[in-house]
Structure formats: structure tokens, C-alpha cells
């Protein structure tokens, strides 16, 4: 991997809520995010600090994580407590699309994308740990993450892939032939084929990433897939993942009880449809911590975080 560029911050925007875990941009340069109290927010006027405003669009009643804007002014929401939701951004109406799979409650939906055929794909990070104990799954390395698909008009998701290491961000290839899935616990991206001779197969797409990938975002088929890195690689954790399952379970029990503070090293990647790195930007000793999402809007890279009470606007990359 090439030497990374510096991730240069421009300003911080407080949003009046904690944990804007995912950030997505619309065609007008506005950013939509969800916060811990269940509100869906839209930020407008980001290009001008004096004109920036925050608008409440809806309240899910749960904990919104991954988002996907639809063409008809609706929003898909992966809610860690309620399941897969659809939100009408004009009146704030929230509708549950799916809250279980094969009789099992969806307790940790993470990210989602909509396909042109009307189906919706989404991830479940863990079948063992809820959101507030996410670090337990990372430490235990459970491999209980799933990739699901909801067919048009259906209320019953089907399992496309399972055994994923904390399945997280999701993005489509430019031709919709495959999905890219972030496996946070394995520091890699996986590819799940939707069409072609390998349809149904899940395989490595980009391995040995310099950090733990979280949400993915793509502006359109011609743009790269942006990858947020929630934290750098931790060599002792890599070593622990090779230990006996009983050792990992014991370590996970300790981890969920210990106070957590994210590192000051943050980063983002952009990759193309072959898994090659287009951009890699990083910053050490950052005051903005735990970058769980990234998108492009208003001439900036916009960073979201499960940890912070606002978003960060950074300088876009140069080159490539």
C-alpha cells in the first residue's frame, strides 16, 4: 500500500446529539445522519460555517446506524434495536421492513444498500453481542455476522452469507454484480457475488487493511468506495484471534466491562471495483476519534463517529 496522505481537518460541526455513526450525502450536498437518541438529522449549508443548520427529520425510537438514501426522498435505516426500517423524510413516518430472520430477532443491523431491482441487502454485525457490547464480538472473534437480502414486497429476509467477522459497511459494485462487505473484526473487505458464474460465493476483496473497516459509502457507480477505519490494527488483538475459543470468550467478558477510549489515530480509504486502493488518508493524535463513516459533501470529506457529538469536515484527497 502506498504511503498515506495526511487527513487534514477543516472544522468540527456540533450537531446536538451523540454518535453520528453513519453519514450519507444527498445530491444537494446535504448530509443525513442518525444519533443515539433515535433522531435522524439533516445538515445543510456545510460549505459556509455561518449558514450551517441542523434539521430533525424523524425519530426511529431505537438506535439508527447505517443509512441509505433512496431516490423517492425515503431513507433506509439499519436500527440496532428495531431492525431494518424505511423512513419517509417528508413527514417522518417510520416503517419497519424486517425485524427478524427465520424467527430470530434482528438485534444488531448495521448497514444497508438498495439494488435497482427493488431488493434491499443489509448486514447484521453480531448474533451474540448487542451494540453496547460491540467490543465483545471484536475480541471474541465470533464470526456470527450475516449478509441478508429482503426481496421486493417481502417481510422475510433471506441469508446470503454468514460466518462473517462483525459484518458492517456495505456497498455495491458499479455494475451491481457483487456487494462489498466490511468485516471489521478481520480488518478486511469481502466480496459477495450477486450475478455471474460465481453468484452466491463470498471471497476476499481487500485484505490486511491498515485498520478496522466500518461503514462504506459510494456516491455513484463512477466513484470509489469510501471506507472508514474505526481504529488502527492492534497486534495483540490479531494474536488473540488465533487463540483457543475459550481464551477469546474470557477476554471478551473482561473487555465488555472495561472502560473504552478510542485511539487518536484515524483514517479513511477509497478503493475501486478491483479492491485496489485509490486513496489512503490518515492522521495521528486526532481530536476527532473513532471514525465510523465517511462521505463526500460540500467540497469536503465528512467524517462520522460513534464516539463524538458532531461531524468533522476534512480536506478532500489529491492525486489519483
From TrEMBL:
Keyword set, alphabetical order: Glycoprotein, Phosphoprotein
Protein's UniProt keywords contain RNA-binding: no
Keyword Glycoprotein: yes
Name used for this protein in its record: SMP-30/gluconolactonase/LRE family protein
Lineage: superkingdom: Bacteria
Family as reported in the entry's similarity comment: Belongs to the strictosidine synthase family.
Coiled-coil segments on the chain, per record: none
SUPFAM superfamilies cross-referenced by the UniProt entry: Calcium-dependent phosphotriesterase
Organism: Streptomyces aquilus
PANTHER family for the chain: ADIPOCYTE PLASMA MEMBRANE-ASSOCIATED PROTEIN HEMOMUCIN-RELATED (PTHR10426:SF88), STRICTOSIDINE SYNTHASE-RELATED (PTHR10426)
A GO molecular-function descriptor: hydrolase activity
Boundaries of every Strictosidine synthase conserved region domain copy: 112-196
Amino acid at each position: 500500500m502506498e504511503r498515506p496522505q495526511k487527513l487534514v481537518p477543516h472544522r468540527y460541526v456540533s450537531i446536538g446529539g451523540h454518535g453520528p455513526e453513519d453519514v450519507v450525502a444527498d445530491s444537494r450536498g446535504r448530509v443525513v445522519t442518525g444519533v443515539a437518541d433515535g433522531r435522524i438529522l439533516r445538515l445543510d449549508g456545510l460549505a459556509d460555517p455561518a449558514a450551517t443548520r441542523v434539521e430533525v427529520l424523524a425519530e426511529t425510537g431505537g438506535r439508527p446506524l447505517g443509512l441509505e438514501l433512496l431516490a423517492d426522498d425515503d431513507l433506509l435505516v439499519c436500527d440496532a434495536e428495531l431492525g431494518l426500517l424505511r423512513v419517509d423524510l417528508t413527514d417522518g413516518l417510520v416503517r419497519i421492513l424486517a425485524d427478524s430472520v427465520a424467527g430470530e430477532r434482528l438485534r444488531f443491523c448495521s448497514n444497508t444498500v438498495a439494488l435497482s431491482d427493488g431488493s434491499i441487502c443489509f448486514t447484521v454485525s453480531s448474533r451474540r453481542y448487542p451494540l453496547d457490547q460491540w467490543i465483545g464480538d471484536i475480541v471474541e472473534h465470533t464470526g456470527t455476522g450475516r449478509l441478508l437480502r429482503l426481496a421486493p414486497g417481502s417481510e422475510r429476509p433471506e441469508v446470503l452469507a454468514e460466518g462473517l467477522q462483525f459484518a458492517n459497511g456495505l456497498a455495491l459494485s458499479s455494475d451491481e454484480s457483487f456487494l462489498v462487505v466490511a468485516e471489521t473484526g478481520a480488518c478486511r473487505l469481502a466480496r459477495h457475488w450477486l450475478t455471474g458464474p460465481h453468484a452466491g460465493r463470498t471471497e476476499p476483496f481487500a485484505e490486511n487493511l491498515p485498520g478496522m473497516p466500518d461503514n462504506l459509502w459510494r456516491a455513484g457507480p463512477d466513484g470509489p468506495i469510501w471506507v472508514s477505519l474505526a481504529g488502527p490494527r492492534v497486534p495483540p488483538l490479531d494474536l488473540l484471534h488465533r487463540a483457543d475459543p475459550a481464551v477469546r470468550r474470557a477476554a471478551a467478558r473482561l473487555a465488555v466491562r472495561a472502560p473504552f477510549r478510542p485511539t487518536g489515530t484515524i483514517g479513511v480509504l477509497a478503493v475501486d471495483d478491483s479492491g485496489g486502493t485509490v486513496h489512503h488518508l490518515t492522521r495521528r493524535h486526532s481530536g476527532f476519534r473513532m471514525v465510523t463513516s465517511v462521505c463526500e459533501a460540500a467540497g469536503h470529506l465528512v467524517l462520522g463517529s460513534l464516539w463524538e457529538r458532531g461531524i468533522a469536515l476534512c480536506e478532500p484527497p489529491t492525486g489519483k
